[in-house]
Amino acid sequence: MFKKEDFILLIGGEAGQGTRFGGNLISQVFNQLGYFVYVYEDYQSLIRGGHNFSEVRLSKEKREARKKEIDVILALDQKTIDLHKERLKKEGFLIFNNDRAKSEQGIGVPVEKIVKEEGGKGPMVNTALISAFLRIFNIDFSLWEKILRAKVKNDIDVNLKIAKRIFEICEPKFQILKIQEKESLLMTGNEACALGMMKAGLDFYFAYPMTPSTSILIFLANKEKEFNVRTYQPESEISVINMALGAAFAGKRTAVGTSGGGFALMTEALSLASQSETPILIINSQRAGPSTGMPTYNLQGDLNFVLGAGHGDMEKIVLQAGNAKDALFCANLGLNLAWQYQTPVILLLDKDVSENTFSVEKEILEDLKSKGPKIFEEKEGENFYRYQMTPDGISPLAFPGGKFIVKANSYEHDEFGITNDEEEIVKKMIEKRKRKFETIKRELQDSSYLEFFGSRDSEIFLFPFGINKGIALELAERMGFSVIFPYLLSPFPEEIVKSYLKKAKKIFTIELNSLGQYVQFLKRYGIFAKPILKYTGRPFFIEELEEEIKKEI
Amino acid sequence: MNLETKTKITWCPGCSNFLILKIFKEVVEELEKEGIKKEEIVFTTGIGCHGKIFDYLNLSSFYGLHGRTIPLAQGIKLANPKLKVISFVGDGDCYNEGIEHLIFAAKRNADIKVFVFDNRNFALTVSQFTATSPKGFKGASTPFGSIEEPLNPLELVFSTGATFIARTFTHETLHMKEMMKNAILHHGFAFLEILQPCITFFNNISFYKERCYLLKNENLESTKDALEKIREWDYKDGKKIPLGIFYKVQKPTFEDEFYKKNC
Fold first, then answer.
1. How far apart are CA B263 and CA B261, in angstroms?
2. Cα three-residue angle A154-A160-A165, rounded to 5 degrees
C-alpha cells in the first residue's frame, strides 16, 4: 500500500538538468497540501554531467530523515533508474524521461519531445516530468500553475504550455488530497541562518566562497535591500574575518561563514576576537575532510577542531544546529550572544543542515529578536575605559567616531586598552575575561538551550550530532528512546544534561565521522556514550541506524 | 584633547620612529584646525616596532594581528565611512606576512591610508630579513647574508591600482609631514612608504641622506612618469632615491561603490 501520509520521492538527473530546482517545486506543491517537507540533496562538485538527485520526503508528521526504501522515482536520465530502482518499493511509481532512458517497468513520458514541440529549452524537461508526476497523482493543475508562476523566473508561459500538454496526455492513476490545513516556510539551513542573523540585527556579512557555506552569502547578497544587510566577498578567509572584526569594532553587527578549511585560516583572528573582546559570529558548515576532502558531502569532522580552535588561553561560545529551525534559532542567538558578551561565537553546521530543505513553522520568526550590548553611559567626569573592570566581566561598549577614544588590543592590555605585561594587571585582565565566561555559563544554564525528547525514565538515550537529530527523533519515537540535543556545546549545559540521564543505561551518539568525536566530547563531562558512526559522506538511512542500534541493545 | 598617553615609550633611544610619532601628532593638530576632529581619526596597527605607536597615541585604534591590519582598517572604514582610517604597518608586517591585503586594498581603492614604517628588517624579533632587505642582508636568520633580491613595494602597489603613491624619509621631517597630510586628505587608497632607518640593526641614515632627493610632484596622473620615477630606485644600492608623490588620480572608492550597489 502506498502510504500517502509519509512517502519519499527521488528526482534525479545530470548536473544542469535542474533536479534540485525540481525537488524544490515539488516541495512547494506539497507544502500547500499541508505536508511537512524534508529534502536531502546529493550532488557532485561539477557543473555539467555527473549524477545529482534530491530525495523529497513528504509527510503528515514532521520527518527529517532519509529512508532506503522510496516510493516515487522521477528519472530525467538512465543513470537515475540504474542507480536507484532497487530502492523503489513494489507499490512505488517510476516515472521517467523516455526520450533518454529505457525501462520495462514504470511510466515513460516523452518529456523532451514535448518540451521541443512547445518551444521550450533543456532544463524545462524537469517541469515536464514533474507535471507528469503531479498529473498521475491527480493534483490540481491550478495549484501547479500557482507554484510555477511564483517560482519560475524566465519563460513562464512556455513552462505552463508544457505543463498543460503533459496534463492532457497523462492519466491520473492515484489521488493525493490536502492532508491537513498547514503551511510552513520552506528553507535550507543556510537560508535559515541568514534569516536568523537578520532578525538579530545583522549589518554586514563577509565570506569567501566555500561549499557548503556559500549559499548564505549568495542568499544575503540577493536580499541586501529587503534585509537591510550588506555583504562582501574579500580576498581570503583571513581578510574576511579581520574585516569583520574591524567593522564590529566600529559598531556594526557582523558575521562570517565558511567551512573547515576556511575556518582554519580564520583561527588566528578568532583568538584576536577573544583577546580584543570583539563580537563576531562565525558559521562553520562542516563538509568532508581532512583537507579538501569531498566538498559536497558530509563528514562531521570539525567538532574537535572547533572546540579547540583559537591559540592561547581562551574561551568561546559554540552552538550546533540539526535542522533549519535550529539554524534560525542558533544564528539569531549566536549573533545576539556575540554582542551581549563581546565574544566570538561559532555556529557549527554541516553540509546537510546547510543545504537540505526543511519545513519551518512560521510562528518561530516572531520569537526572534535583536538583543543589544551593554553600552557605556557617560557620567560627569568619567572616562571611557574599553576594558573596564566590572563584577560580571562585561565592560560597556563605545565605538570610535563618537565622544570617546576607543582602543582595542591584540596584546594583553590595561583597562584603557594600552599594551601591558605587568603581573598584577595581566592577572586582573585575564580574570575579568574569565568572569565574563562565568557570567555566560551562569546565564546560559537554561533548558531552553537544549532540546529534549522522550522521558527521564528512559534507559536508552541518543545524542545525535548535527543533521542526525532528525533521524534520531524519528527512531526514538518509534522505539521509545529519548533524545538530547544541546544547542550549546560550549559552555556545555552539563548539569541539565546529566539531570536527564539519571536512569540511562545506554547512551549512543549518532555522528558522521570515523573517530566518534561527539563521544570524545561527552566524555569530558563524564557522559559515556557509544558511537554509531557512518563515514561515507552521506547521512544515515533510518533502516541502517535501526539495525546498528538493535545490534547494541 | 591630549594626543599623548601616559605610556613609557620603548623604542630604542634615538629610533627614527620618534620622528614619525612627532610629525604625525603635528599632522593631526593641523587637520583639526582644518575641521577634522581627532575623534574621527582612527588607526590600526600590525605587529612589530611600528605597532608600538598604538600605545603612544591617544586616538581610537585597533592593535591587530601581524600582517592583517589592512583588512581591519577596511572593516572600520566600511562600518563608518565618516572616519579617517589610517593603517600603520611595518615592512615585515605588510610586504611579508599579509601582502595580499595590501594588493587587494589598493585594487579596490579602499579609502584607507597605509603608512609603511619600512626599516627593511624584522627588528622587534632581533633582526631578520624582510621583503625589502637588500640581498646579502646579514640578519639573525641569515648569518651569511639573505639570498633574495628585495621587492620594490611602490611598483607593486602601482601595478595593483593604488590611486595615491608616495615615499618619504623620516629625517626629511617637513616632507614627511606634507606627505602624511596629502595621503590622509586623498579620497581613496593612499600608500605612503616611509624610509625609516633602524638605528640598531640596519642603520642606513647616511645611505638615504646621500641619495634622497625631492620630486617636484608634477604630472601626477601620468602612469608613464610614475613608473619611471618608481623604477629610479629598486631598493638595491642605487644612486638616487626619489621622495614625493609618484602618482595620484581620482577614482570611485570601495566605500562609494559598496554603498551604491543595490540602492
1. 5
2. 140
Residue among A243, A265, A270 with most chain B CBs within 10 A, to mutate: A243
Cell numbers of B206, please?
Answer: 647616511
Whether A244 contacts chain B with CB within 8 A: yes
Model confidence over A398-409: pLDDT tens digits?
Answer: 999 999 999 999
Task: Using alpha carbons, select from A406, A432, A407 the residue that is nearest to residue A418.
Answer: A407
Residues 6+ apart with CB under 8 A from A98: A108, A109, A110, A111
- Taking only the tens place, the pLDDT of each residue in B3-45 is 999 999 999 999 999 999 999 999 999 999 999 999 999 999 9
**At a CB cut-off of 8 Å and minimum separation 6, what does B63 contact?**
A276, A407, A408, A409, A410, A411, A419, B44, B45, B51, B54
Determine the pLDDT at residue B262. 62
Indicate the burial class of A478 (C-beta count within 10 angstroms; 0-12, 13-18, 19 or more).
exposed
How many CB atoms sit inside 10 A of residue B250's CB?
Answer: 12
- ipTM, 2 dp: 0.98
- Which amino acid, B142? T
Nearest one of A331, A311, A206 to A257, comparing CA atoms: A206
Distances (CA, A) of B211 to B115, B131, B206, B208: 21, 21, 9, 5
Beta-carbon separation of B75 and A246 below 8 A? yes
- What contacts A147, CB < 8 A, 6 or more positions away? A25, A28, A29, A32
Q: What's the CA gap between A247 and A240, in Å, rounded?
A: 11
CA separation for the pair A348, B53 (Å, rounded):
38
For A243, the closest of B40, B58, B74 (CB atoms) is: B74
Q: Is A313 exposed, middle or buried (0-12, 13-18, 19+ CB in 10 A)?
A: exposed
Instruction: Convert the pLDDT of each residue in B175-231 to its tens digit.
Output: 999 999 999 999 999 999 999 999 999 999 999 999 999 999 999 999 999 999 999
Cβ <8 Å between A418 and B258: no
C-alpha cell at A467: 543533521
Do residues B135 and B150 lie in contact, with contact meaning Cβ atoms separated by under 8 Å? yes
